[in-house]
From TrEMBL:
It comes from the Bacteria. This is PilZ domain-containing protein. Residues 27-86 form the PilZ domain. InterPro entries: PilZ_domain.
Length: 119
């Protein structure tokens, strides 16, 4: 059975760390994001069908750190092409507005925008 992805992904490998919200220990890195989910790249396999509490830390404009807290369920986990790493897919439960803002910011940052012609 072939299932095609209907939501566009945005690749982020090894840029944004994901932490355990309660222990503040790093879990892995965002691999890609979509409106309702994310892929995590980690050095340990994630437990499928388990819920996780994630925190993404973003640098703020004023030097403060902005937190995006997420509750997610792991839907799948498999070995990455890179040895000793695992890719895991998560569905997000009620992601906050800040997560949508992160997706928009990443789209702008990683997109090629045409140059504006000067008059």
């Amino acid at each position: 059975m072939v299932i095609e992805r209907l939501i566009q992904r945005h690749q982020l490998t090894f840029f944004l760390k994901v932490f355990n919200r309660f222990t503040d220990k790093p879990i892995g890195y965002l691999g890609n994001v979509s409106d309702g989910g994310l892929m995590l790249i980690s050095q340990l396999p994630m437990l499928v069908d388990a819920n996780f509490e994630f925190r993404i830390k973003l640098p703020g404009a004023d030097g403060e750190v902005q937190f995006i807290d997420l509750t997610a369920r792991c839907l799948w986990c498999r070995e990455d092409l890179t040895p000793h790493y695992y890719d895991s897919g998560f569905i997000l439960y009620q992601p906050p507005a800040e997560y949508s803002g992160l997706i928009s910011a990443l789209q702008r940052y990683f997109s090629f925008q045409p140059l504006q012609a000067s008059a």
